[in-house]
Amino acid sequence: MKKLLGIILALLPIFSVGSANTVKAAENDSQFTKEVIDGAYYYQKDKDTGKIMTGHANKFYLNEKLAYCIEPLVQITDHTYNSTTDWSVVGLSDEQEDFIEKVGYFGYEYPGHQTDKYYMAAQQLIWEKARNVETKYTTERNGGTEIDLTKEKNDILNLVNNYSSLPSFANDKIEANMGDEIVLNDTNKVLNQFSLNYNGQNKVSVNVNNLDIKLDDNFIGEETLKFVKKNYDNQVNLIYYKESSQTLATLRISNPLNFEIKIKSNGGSVEINKKGEKIVYSNGSYSYETINLPEVEFAIYANEDIVDSTGKVIYKKYDLIDTLTTDKLGFVKLENMYYGKYFLVEGKSAQGNMVSNEKYYFETTKNDLVNGKIIKKLDIQNYLPKGTLEFTKLDFTNGNVIPNTEIMIFTEDDRLVYQGVTDENGKIVITDLLAGQKYYIIERNPATGYKLSDEKVYFEIKENGEIVKATMTNEQIVNVPNTQKNQSNIGNIIAVIICAAGIGIIVYDEVKKRRNKSKKE
Known about the structure:
Blueprint (H helix, E strand, L loop, with lengths): L1 H10 L14 E21 L5 E11 L2 E5 L10 E5 L9 H12 L10 H15 L2 E8 L2 E4 L3 H13 L10 E5 L3 E5 L8 E4 L5 E5 L2 E5 L6 E9 L8 E4 L6 E3 L7 E9 L1 E15 L2 E8 L4 E6 L3 E2 L5 E3 L4 E6 L5 E7 L2 E9 L11 E5 L4 E2 L2 E9 L4 E10 L10 E6 L4 E6 L5 E8 L2 E9 L11 E5 L5 E8 L8 H38 L1
Parallel strand pairs: 7-15, 16-26, 27-33
Antiparallel strand pairs: 1-2, 1-4, 1-5, 2-3, 3-14, 4-13, 5-6, 8-11, 9-12, 10-11, 12-15, 13-14, 16-17, 16-22, 18-21, 18-23, 19-20, 23-24, 25-26, 27-30, 28-29, 28-31, 31-32
Helix pairs in contact: 2-3, 3-4
């Protein structure tokens, strides 16, 4: 029963691949055996004390698991060992432990290294790291030819030194849009040495040294891809120890190299640029200037059922998505919107501009790319309320229209906004007068034959689109006859007639005398 328990305890760590957790020591659970390496002897010399130890070179096994000696110049005095994953029973530094684990991992059992030379090379590197010793392997116990392990040691050390190499994109944060396809190429060419641990909503796969990522068409959020260095088997690091006997270890890497990549999948955005108007008075006239309109409120609604990548309904049709208010530049943005159809309505305008009653329909799709991001841009214009004045100038007496009358129009606070002359129909029509305020009209120059009017005609445009009619009358200038002048003229006429008559009588009398004289002769 005790033997069975020992076997079970020995097998338990096998199923803890990659775990950094400490397994409690199990007593007398590991049986020591060895295999002689023919024609090879070890030599150890303590550089501090000069102590030397030699002997046959062997491969060691605990419960049939290959093991390495950890302590130079220490004999093996027992064949039953306790086991643990806790390095503290050895008393090495973290740096020594890490190096020794890697050397043993890349030693004899590493694929392609199953020769006695790789075992001896790994053992020699372990001894020299654990203690200040000189070691070598020879063909005879106290002499012979030194066995050249240069190639094997270099192979192992090259793998140890490169073990910490990570893919070129390790620990990066990848940010892209829903539905994007991303290929990350590992320029360090070590990605295929790592296993991917991921069970998310996007499609991720390792293709040699490329990481292929296909973001789901309607997934918004951040996910983490975890990678861990592959092991060539499922054994764990085990330390075998017994008082007054050599400590051995089945060497694997306690804390396999790992890294993460974060994937952030962004949704679409709608950006609203809100413009408005302000009125500008200058040189006796007015105009409207386009301005950025702050503090305008919008509400965004779904115009269809909006679903995520799993088919879950996030918003039903006509559900309110969010409310937005433009900033001082008239700009506002809603981010991370799922692909779908929406509409927005305006709830509040600002600075006297009218609220737009229009519904603005839009759809976020992959086609709305702006500088690599999915952005739907909406430019929306608001307007000040305006109305129209129809002015007519009339004759006070007969009601006829009067052309060529010059008038001026002022706001009620005496700001001149218009100056002009009535047309042939006696009219002036002014469009786009700002609504919501009062005005008055005065005459500046009357038409010819009419008196200057001192009347002020007031009018008010109360709402957008209103047409206001106003009239002003003028009196004609009337000429009064001069009686004395007329009497003087009549007298002159009479005098002229009398003179003419007198002259006529004289001439007639002279002509008559001449005729009579002629008859007598």
